[in-house]
Amino acid sequence: MLDCTPKEIKERTGGVINPAKTCQPIGAMYAALGIHRCLPHSHGSQGCCSYHRMHLSRHFRDPIMASSSSFTEGSSVFGGGANLKTAIKNVFAIYNPDVMAVHTTCLSETIGDDLPTIIKGAEIPEGKVVIHANTPSYQGSHITGFSNMVKGMVNYLSTASLETKKEQVNIIPGFVNPGDMREIKRILKVMGIKFIMFPDTSGVVDSPMTGKYEMFPKGGTTLAELRDTGNSKVTIALGSYASGDAAYQLERKCQVQPLIIKTPIGIKASDEFLMALMNKFTVDIPPELAEERGQLVDIMTDTHFHFHGKKVAIFGDPDIVIAMTEFLLSLGMKPIHVLTGTPATGGAIGHTVGNFEQEVGEMLKQAGVAGRVKAAGDLFELHQWIKNEPVDLLIGNTYGKYIAKAEDIPFVRLGFPILDRSVHSYLPVVGYKGAMRLLEMISNALLDRADRDAKDQDFELVM
Amino acid sequence: MAINEKVLDEILSQYPTKVKKNRKKHIIIKDPNQARQEIEANTRTIPGIITNRGCAYAGCKGVVLGPLKDVVHITHGPIGCGYYSWLTRRNKAASSDPTKNFISYCFSTDMQESDIVFGGEKKLARMIDEVMEIFKPNAITISATCPVGLIGDDLGAVAKAAEQKHGITVMHFNCEGYKGVSQSAGHHIANNTLMERVIGAGELEAAPGRYPINILGEYNIGGDSWEIERILREIGYTVLSVMTGDGSYEELKNAHVAELNLVQCHRSINYIAEMLETKYGTPWLKVNFIGIQSTIDSLRNMAIYFGDPELTRRTEEVIAKELAEVEPVMEQYKKICQGKTAFCFVGGSRGHHYQGLFAELGMETVLAGYEFAHRDDYEGRDVLPQIKLDADNKNIPELHVEPDQRRFKLKVPRERMEELKKKIPLSYYAGMMVDMKGGHVVVDDLNHYETEQFIKLLKPDIFASGIKDKYVVQKMGIPAKQLHSYDYSGPYAGFKGAVKFAEDITMSFISPTWNFITPPWKNQPILEGEIVEGGCSTC
């Protein structure tokens, strides 16, 4: 497995081998699916749209709908305005969504298609909405694309229509699974705080089997809610890379106070999330959540000897990896290789949304862990790091399984995409509940290995 | 359940006028009384229609080039294209030298904004240098993506310079995603360069074994080609190369010494098949190793071609042995599948090939079609002279080859060739429609709206298509079988493959999970008690 990867590391500047990221539009497509009755639209040649739909379908095992402008060589030379106008007309006539959310590809971006002008000149039926975001694939990653589409929602829809702000919070959950969005909403309900979550893909990409196919399922943030985000008191952006930019934009446009915090993975980030809500809305932490936290700490204490001192390599999207690294440190583990494919700046133009290397580097330093941290890295390099300094556990998306097999490392699947296991997208990794689930996953991976490797006389009943 | 022109018209009436006019030409209800029915195919996709189609890059790098295992395939573009074509098609490959098998790697120049602005040629050249230093592949391909054509990167120049610098073959493919109207353009682009640069580049002048053949248009999805090769080797054939499943640059180089080329996927490889005939005098035979009967027919046709009694005897021996193994097993599956109906909508060849296998299970394919096939795949190669290239397809280069002065050899004398052509599909493909029954529907570039409508109308028992449709169809309570990825199963080709397919299809029908869709509170009486009002005449 991966027998062509040498141990010796040479500096490379020609590109990427085995990427730890993909391109913007898939993130924009995912974000757009989090709007109720929305059809994402890819303004480019149709290959992108098919690839993005396929990839999301494989991760969620659910229908992923999107249309394309289907550029030909002619439109690539003379501009794709006619294609987009035709597409808008056809989409509303045939599929009748309430919203079309248009994103771009490297093709239409390189050509320089002027989307606002094209959309203004298009036939849009009464009461229907077309929004857009520019998502050039040659900047940032899929996380940047998600961020850009959420920002597009703010640009087109968020409206400050009231004199005084409502006692409600906007939650931008970031590029996480519907299971995570459901868990975040549950926490808010238990806290008794009014909220608008956007985007919200729960009920869209984890829809139930009923025997009836719904092209536009029940889930998704409604247009009314999206407009009302301008009237909220605070926006909590979970994960600076995926959600920060839109929160700042909402501040600029509607004077909603932004608060950028970590994706609430692990105990500290979950605490931080609850504390932020508590402070902004002067509510008490309900006993239900306090009990969950206590259970989590109980498990951590009970099982710390499974984890302590174990070396970990972790890769994935920056918001998830930052929070997860923090959690690993809380468990006494040593995340010695930490890598994301997304560039440090996240790729957003004129705005630094985070600093992966600095943030993770700081955490490791404080914990006294000597580790390698890299943004804009690839899995080829991560594999070489592991060959040079082996680990006890690998955490990342499905592509990690090749390294795990090659180096015979226990492997925990986390993040996007997970193409070779099911259920993962339905259940949370965020909040205290999600942290318990992560603990179980890590424990199982490590202890299954211990069982597999044990000599008969060392095989334990109780562990 | 039957469909007629009127019903079809009702479906299409939901479309805007222009769309209706267009789509009408892509849908045919098979009428056995007509000698030939003309379908429109290989035309541009309607924007916003929700097509299943992909792009030329996918057809070139993803389908044809990608499976060549000893070659490093560099995607010159932003990260997505390389990423999405990384390990997602299940073209399996094994190598005796795993350090020369790059199948699980993804190489991309990961173009950034500065590369779009200032050009990406230098970065590409650096990537080639790094690949040479680290991997030392037998050859390198460079595949262009959408922005590359627009910014004017000269891939040919970079490839040529790299060849001089490193002394290996570096091929470039201008398969920008917007070329043509679908994956099909990419097949053509890949075929041209493989023919020009690889096939025939080897030293061999004679084949290293008896009955030397190539298998063309077979990508070893789920191990298909390994099962086909197993059977062929058992009969006594020498398989020189497979294009391109588990294929290699090293094998492809000597593909010119074959006595016969087998064509499994006509759409993707017919260009090379034709050019091999022109250049080296090697005829091609349309084969189909999907389905037991089709496999037997193909093997017998091959035996007829070689006309060697010993080979014929061996062919029948192997057929008999294989049949004895698979027939009893197929019987048990047939009992469950018998009488069921299927939709079969796959890329450019399986929409036809699997109909026979469904039929062997007692199932009828009531709707079939392709994403990107051309008219000849639907109507047969007779129609080729009538196909006019439209503006969208005109700029796909046509490669013209001449007979190789040194190596051209008529493998079969002309007279015998004509005799053979009457018996077997030699250098000929009759297309899909000829095998379909009256009333069955043929749809080109089926879209989401039509998928829903035809399912409502024809209520198939199973829908065979791809990943984008799968979960849509399953949500309706109808089993969906992926015939691109085989739902991570396979092989489905050859004798053993037919059994595996039958097993998988049967499983999808008899799985208990379908029984749980309706919750018990929905199909049982809600209230227990008596109905008082107006129900009972005796009270």
From TrEMBL, chain A:
The keyword Chaperone does not apply. It is an enzyme of class 1 (oxidoreductase). Its EC number is 1.18.6.1. Binds 1 [8Fe-7S] cluster per heterodimer. GO terms for cellular component: molybdenum-iron nitrogenase complex. Residues 23-446 form the Nitrogenase/oxidoreductase component domain. Gene3D superfamilies: Nitrogenase molybdenum iron protein domain, Nitrogenase Molybdenum-iron Protein, subunit B, domain 4. Pfam families: Oxidored_nitro. It catalyses: N2 + 8 reduced [2Fe-2S]-[ferredoxin] + 16 ATP + 16 H2O = H2 + 8 oxidized [2Fe-2S]-[ferredoxin] + 2 NH4(+) + 16 ADP + 16 phosphate + 6 H(+). Its cofactor is [8Fe-7S] cluster. Signal peptide: none annotated. Keywords: ATP-binding, Iron, Iron-sulfur, Metal-binding, Nitrogen fixation, Nucleotide-binding, Oxidoreductase. InterPro entries: ChlB/BchB/BchZ, Nase/OxRdtase_comp1, Nase_comp1_CS, Nase_Mo-Fe_CF_bsu. The keyword Nucleotide-binding applies. PROSITE patterns: NITROGENASE_1_1, NITROGENASE_1_2. GO terms for molecular function: ATP binding; iron-sulfur cluster binding; metal ion binding; nitrogenase activity. This molybdenum-iron protein is part of the nitrogenase complex that catalyzes the key enzymatic reactions in nitrogen fixation. Belongs to the NifD/NifK/NifE/NifN family. NCBIfam families: nifK (TIGR01286). Tetramer of two alpha and two beta chains. Forms complex with the iron protein (nitrogenase component 2). This is Nitrogenase molybdenum-iron protein beta chain. It comes from Desulforamulus ferrireducens.
Automatic annotation (TrEMBL), chain B:
Keywords: ATP-binding, Iron, Iron-sulfur, Metal-binding, Molybdenum, Nitrogen fixation, Nucleotide-binding, Oxidoreductase. This molybdenum-iron protein is part of the nitrogenase complex that catalyzes the key enzymatic reactions in nitrogen fixation. One of its GO terms (cellular component) is molybdenum-iron nitrogenase complex. Tetramer of two alpha and two beta chains. Forms complex with the iron protein (nitrogenase component 2). This is Nitrogenase protein alpha chain. SUPFAM superfamilies: Helical backbone' metal receptor (SSF53807). InterPro entries: Nase/OxRdtase_comp1, Nase_comp1_asu, Nase_comp1_CS, Nase_Mo-Fe_asu. GO terms for molecular function: ATP binding; iron-sulfur cluster binding; metal ion binding; nitrogenase activity. Signal peptide: none annotated. The keyword Iron applies. Residues 55-507 form the Nitrogenase/oxidoreductase component domain. It comes from Desulforamulus ferrireducens. Its EC number is 1.18.6.1.
